[in-house]
């Protein structure tokens, strides 16, 4: 593989590949900070310490083995002291089954409103659903984040999970151990398990969605008969270039571990990695580079053709989590019902609207809003969408100004008390199907 060194003085983000598959990145913020020929020399340049961050078991298969070597001002054991348990009442982890909450139902929420209360990316996390078990590393949680305050000398990492961040409003800047990522709507970022970072609110207030993945890491789905192109391409996933903070200031580090939160105080910034190489790194991805595929004659394919990322489970073909994107695209099929059809399946589907209008729900599902249809619970188009799709002239049609997504999992998603009692739940959502009428009259022919 060609060696590429990107200086921190450049654009701040490097074209790369989806981590894994044996592809390594290299970047240094100071010349010759990366050692040559071995990962852990007896003495590193600049008096740096060599340290490995492993995202998989040491003996994982080569194509799945993920680790990054960091060359840092202090080893990370100097970034943790004695921990104090703290309360983070709005951030919940599975299992979190509230006996007073009914999770079985078709639910939809308006956007969670902003507040004047100072909230960082971490303290503004509001859990909507949980699934699985964080202690056995299966399942997920979904959150809304509200952020209007920058984390100043305040750092965080999750030992439980990787976070998939989907902005809906505002611009965030993630200062991570391995470099800086700016994140805006129409983009996503993946923050790996164990990666330390702080979040700056560049343009706010900011709001978005988070999928917290307890299980196997997100990866690109196999394309199967689709072949080598379309959907998401590895080259469009970007990694940060090395940048470091050499600051002697009182700081805090908060750690999420087994669903609990702990805080320690240190006297310096923990973002002190001067150079790094490896394949375990945060990434960002521009959702407008996603190329949808679909039917070009008749019929309606399953929504799995819109999968951007998948986190596998132990059962082949059945994901722990799929991240699915419904963006602008052409609809061209003949003699076919074009919106999503009525169905129930084994996956629990939480949808979010980034912007625009979703074709199956032209009313009520607004940008920043969420819907939830749990496993084996029927759902589908509302009455206006059904009537319009059943009677419109089927000519090529472009869906414009639309971007919604789905976090779906093989596990049931349990509502939190916040989602059931405090988030702006649309009590009349289920009424959107009231207008569906019996059309059967016992005679042949299409009605």
TrEMBL record:
Keywords: Dioxygenase, Iron, Metal-binding, Oxidoreductase. CDD domains: cupin_HGO_N. Residues 17-287 form the Homogentisate 1,2-dioxygenase N-terminal domain. It comes from the Bacteria. Transmembrane segments: none annotated. The keyword Oxidoreductase applies. Its cofactor is Fe cation. Residues 289-440 form the Homogentisate 1,2-dioxygenase C-terminal domain. InterPro entries: HgmA_C, HgmA_N, Homogentis_dOase, RmlC-like_jellyroll, RmlC_Cupin_sf. It holds the Pfam family HgmA_N. Signal peptide: none annotated. Its EC number is 1.13.11.5. NCBIfam families: hmgA. PANTHER family: HOMOGENTISATE 1,2-DIOXYGENASE (PTHR11056:SF0). Belongs to the homogentisate dioxygenase family. This is Homogentisate 1,2-dioxygenase.
């Amino acid at each position: 593989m060609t060696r590429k060194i990107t200086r921190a003085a450049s654009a701040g983000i490097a074209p790369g590949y989806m981590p894994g598959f044996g592809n390594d990145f290299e970047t240094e913020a100071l010349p010759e900070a990366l050692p040559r020929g071995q990962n852990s020399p007896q003495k590193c340049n600049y008096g740096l310490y060599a340290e490995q961050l492993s995202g998989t078991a040491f003996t994982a298969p080569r194509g799945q083995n993920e680790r990054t070597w960091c060359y840092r001002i202090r080893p990370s054991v100097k970034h943790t002291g004695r921990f104090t348990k703290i309360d983070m009442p709005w951030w919940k982890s599975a299992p979190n089954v509230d006996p007073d909450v009914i999770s079985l139902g078709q639910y939809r929420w308006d956007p969670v409103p902003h507040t004047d209360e100072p909230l960082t990316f971490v303290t503004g996390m509001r859990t909507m659903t949980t699934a699985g078990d964080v202690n056995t590393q299966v399942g997920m949680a979904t959150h809304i984040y509200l952020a209007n305050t920058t984390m100043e000398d305040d750092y965080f990492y999750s030992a439980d999970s990787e976070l998939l961040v989907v902005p809906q409003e505002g611009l965030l800047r993630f200062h991570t151990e391995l470099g800086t990522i700016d994140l805006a709507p129409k983009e996503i970022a993946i923050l790996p398990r164990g990666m330390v970072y702080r979040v700056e609110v560049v343009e706010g207030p900011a709001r978005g969605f988070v999928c917290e993945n307890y299980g196997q890491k997100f990866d690109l789905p196999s394309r199967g008969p689709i072949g080598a192109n379309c959907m998401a391409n590895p080259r469009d996933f970007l990694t940060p270039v090395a940048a470091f903070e050499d600051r002697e200031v009182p700081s805090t580090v908060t750690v999420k571990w087994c669903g609990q939160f702990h805080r320690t105080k240190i006297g310096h910034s923990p973002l002190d990695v001067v150079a790094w190489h490896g394949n375990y790194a945060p990434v960002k991805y521009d959702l407008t580079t996603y190329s949808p595929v679909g039917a070009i004659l008749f019929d309606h394919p399953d929504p799995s053709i819109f999968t951007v990322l998948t986190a596998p489970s132990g059962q082949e073909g059945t994901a722990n989590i799929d991240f699915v994107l419904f963006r602008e695209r052409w609809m061209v099929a003949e003699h076919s019902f074009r919106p999503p059809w009525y169905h129930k399946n084994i996956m629990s589907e939480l949808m979010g609207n980034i912007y625009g209008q979703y074709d199956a729900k032209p009313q009520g599902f607004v940008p920043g809003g969420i819907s939830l249809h749990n496993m084996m619970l029927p759902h589908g188009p509302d009455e206006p969408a059904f009537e319009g799709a059943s009677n419109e002239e089927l000519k090529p049609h472009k869906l414009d100004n639309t971007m919604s997504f789905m976090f779906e999992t093989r596990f049931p998603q349990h509502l939190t008390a916040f989602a059931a009692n405090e988030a702006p739940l649309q009590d009349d959502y289920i009424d959107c199907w009231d207008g569906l009428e019996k059309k059967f009259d016992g005679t042949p022919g299409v009605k």
